[in-house]
Design a protein that fits this description.
Layout lengths: L4 H41 L3 E6 L9 E4 L4 E6 L4 E6 H4 L3 E6 L6 H8 L12 E5 L1
Parallel strand pairs: 4-6
Antiparallel strand pairs: 1-5, 2-3, 3-4, 5-6
Length: about 130
């Protein structure tokens, strides 16, 4: 079987076309994977959530427990089904934006922070750490 000059040129350009196609495909897959990782990182592990907390809703004694010896406070947030653990100096601000950890504290961490006597105050609810 003999090839003409035109058929020879088509066959020789084919590997280059295939190489370019492969490079484009690898680039698209790489960019897609990188974008997916960035989105997943911000959704599951990353960006701290900034919350606006109005401390006036915690003025009643039933919703607040101050632990002066440890300079912390527990605030029971019944509508949101959670408790907030925060330093007392934060309560001095009437309102503001604070970081709320995305994962609740474990029972052992809460007991260590607030002590055994204060533990039942928020026992059924998850406890989240609040920071500036």
């Amino acid at each position: 079987m003999t090839f003409t000059k035109e058929e020879d040129d088509k066959n020789s350009s084919s590997p280059c076309g295939l190489c370019c196609f492969t490079l484009v495909a690898i680039s698209v897959v790489s960019i897609s994977a990188l974008t997916t990782l960035l989105v997943a990182n911000s959704m599951y592990t990353g960006l701290p959530e900034r919350k606006h907390i109005n401390f006036k809703q915690f003025e009643s004694p039933e919703s607040r427990l101050l632990i002066e010896s440890k300079q912390i406070a527990l605030l029971k947030d019944e509508p949101n089904q959670r408790c907030l653990l925060l330093p007392l100096q934060i309560i001095g601000r009437s309102q503001g934006e604070f970081s709320l950890d995305t994962d609740p504290l474990t029972h052992a961490e809460v007991r260590q922070a607030v002590g055994e006597k204060a533990w039942p105050f928020c026992a059924p609810l998850p406890v989240f750490l609040v920071s500036l």
